[in-house]
Amino acid sequence: MLYAIETNRITKRFGGVAAVSNVSLSIPQGELFGLLGPNGAGKTTLINMLSTMTDPSDGGARVWGFDVVADAHLVRQSIGVVFQDITLDERLTGRENLEIHGRLYGLEGRVRRRRIEDLLALVDLTDRADSLVKTYSGGMLRRLQIARGFVHNPHILFLDEPTLGLDPQTRMHIWEYIKVLTEEEGVTIVLTTHYLEEADHLCDRVAIIDHGEIVAIDTPEALKSQLGGDVITLEVEDPADITRLRALCEGNGFERVVSRGSSAVSMAVRDGERKIPHALNLASGAGIPILSVSLHKPALDDVFLHHTGRTLRDKETGDTGNHGRSGTRPTRRR
Amino acid sequence: MMAMRSMNAVYAMWLSEMLRFWRSKSRIIGALSTPLTFLIFLGPGLSSGFQFQGGGALDLSFFAPGFIAMSVLFASLFAGGTVVWEKESGLLKEILIAPINRFFVALGKAAGGVTIALIQGTSLLVFAGLVGVRYVSGPGVLAGLLVMAVSGIGFIGLAVALASWIESPEGFQMIMSFVAMPLVLLSGAFFPISGLPPWLGVLVSMNPLTYSVEALRWCLLGSSVIPITMSSAVITLFAFCMLLLGGKYFGRIRVQ
Fold it and tell me: How many distinct structural domains can be found in chain B?
């Protein structure tokens, strides 16, 4: 078996709307694979199909060599799922939560206790293992939930938005835990996120998913280098000038020109420092006042912008999206 | 291997029910206090006012089996009903994604519920004994425990079916009070079922709790209006049907 996961034009429709549409992916064993996309892009729906919780409407997938519909039971024996909402029992202690999970997956006594001890240590919860989960902070809940996903030694672990709703500092801690666990365990990991930094920081390969379709797939570095060396962003004074500025730049040797938000235009270039004067001359020649200019190395946000015409952050604040219903539910604390 | 695994899963579900029960003292107190209050106040209050038509006295002993059955009913409905909260909170997803046949998940939950129902029923049984209820025999008390367990399975099955079917915890609470109230009132826990007006008699005879109460009376006190063969047959059949129904609806829960 070459691939831990292979999907073949897998599709899920809710009513008439395709939440996931014709996705074909191959994820090799041991990879930390990221699905990056805005809320409602279809990430969770894809995970739900791969973890046998939802049947595909069309197409299919093999997970650890087993068909997700015909061999659902065997798929379940091979995977672990860490859900995006907290599904811990807050009336039990951290250790008890892992104990119940281990028993549910048939781990024998001594092996189970040892395993739980090791995992609690890995996520730094040994001290709090015997406190009730309802006393845990948001970051501790996530750590415990992620550790639980590893208890039964799954071949493949799905992490659905593992840092959703956490503050940046806690998020970075969780990344470290995920890295350590992945290295220690040698598991294939599929992670969904709508945080670019997360995909960039953690993943071996990233698929950008939008409106249920994969629009780009590669290593973060390769995705970024597709855009050339630099990104120039011109912020205009009057948003009405945007269209004109775009056309102007496109007509004068700039490529990959896109609007960024409502009052800026970005373009990917080589030798950015040398292109800035040219861009500014074009703008002032056309009488378009420019407020600011910035030059940066392409980030995944630029890649996303390039492939979808929107930034991920636009998506988060503005467009609520009507594509599928896989979107993010608020994390519930019970 | 499979069997071992399934038993492990049943035990895991049972264990988590037990741990939760043990942790929520308010639930223990709440579940015991209602029937206990009935036993302490309503029992003596009612018995002072009534006389059997035949002349026998209505005393505390007459009411004790009814209150015990009532406590088993409440405990079972509550235990089965936890499914609706687990569905809402997402806890059930984590359980149902495990490579375990749902039947064993449901079985473990039912085992946990029955244990809790038995703990509560037995506490009440002991308490009633302390305040003067005389049980006919040791074997009778043991048979009474069996009646509690079988009745418990029936009501847990019913609650699991309703909880799997109903979407919101609020809706479930509504339905529960709607189900529990008539079950208790029409069971003969509070009145002798002989010589009832025909319309009431019909309702009482259609109520599964009636047979639990009657079977308990027979086991604990040595006499009942409904013959033990019939009451035990009815509660067994009820438990069997409700277990199937609960299993069916539990199997239909979609998680995503």
Answer: 1
* pLDDT per residue as tens, chain A (334 positions): 679 999 999 999 998 889 999 999 999 998 999 999 888 889 999 999 999 999 999 999 999 999 999 999 999 999 999 998 889 999 999 999 999 999 999 898 899 999 999 999 988 999 999 999 999 999 999 999 999 999 999 999 999 999 887 888 888 888 888 888 888 888 999 999 888 888 888 999 999 999 999 999 999 888 888 777 788 899 998 888 888 888 888 888 887 888 888 888 888 888 888 888 888 888 888 889 999 998 888 777 788 888 877 776 654 443 333 333 333 334 433 3
Q: Do B15 and A106 touch (CB under 8 A)?
A: no
| Residue A92 sits at the chain B interface (C-beta within 8 Å) | yes
pLDDT at B56 over 70: no
Backbone angles phi, psi at B223, to 5 degrees: -150, 150
Residue B129 buriedness (CB in 10 A; 0-12 / 13-18 / 19+): middle
Q: Is A140 helix (H, G, I), strand (E, B) or coil?
A: helix
CA B149, CA A44: separation in Å to the nearest integer? 42
Single out the residue of A307, A320, A313 nearest to residue A214, CA to CA.
A307
A317 to chain B, closest Cα gap in Å = 25
Q: B105: domain range?
A: 2-252
Is B244's Cβ below 8 Å from some Cβ in A? no
Tell me the shortest Cα–Cα distance from A75 to chain B, in angstroms: 8
Tokens linked to B231: 């009451």
Helix (H) or strand (E) holding B254: none
Q: Cα-atom radius of gyration of chain A, to the nearest Å?
A: 22
The full set of domains in chain A, from first to last, is 3-219 (3.40.50.300), 228-297 (3.30.70.260)
Taking an 8 Å cut-off on Cβ atoms, the answer to whether A83 and B11 are in contact is: no
Chain B CB contacts of A88 under 8 Å are: 91, 94
Q: Which residue of A has its CA nearest to B20?
A: A91
Phi, psi of A57 (to 5 degrees): -80, -30
Q: Nearest-CA distance from B10 to chain A in Å? A: 8
Work out the number of other CB atoms within 10 angstroms of the CB of residue B205. Answer: 15
CB contact under 8 A, A103 and B20: no
From the list B5, B24, B93, the residue facing A106 with the nearest CB is B5
Interchain pair A81, B97: CB under 8 A? yes
Q: Is A309 exposed, middle or buried (0-12, 13-18, 19+ CB in 10 A)?
A: exposed
Q: What is the pTM of this model?
A: 0.81
Interface probe with B: pick from A46, A87, A90, most Cβ of B within 10 Å = A87
**Residue A192 near residue A47 (C-beta atoms within 8 A):** yes
Higher pLDDT, A166 or B250: B250
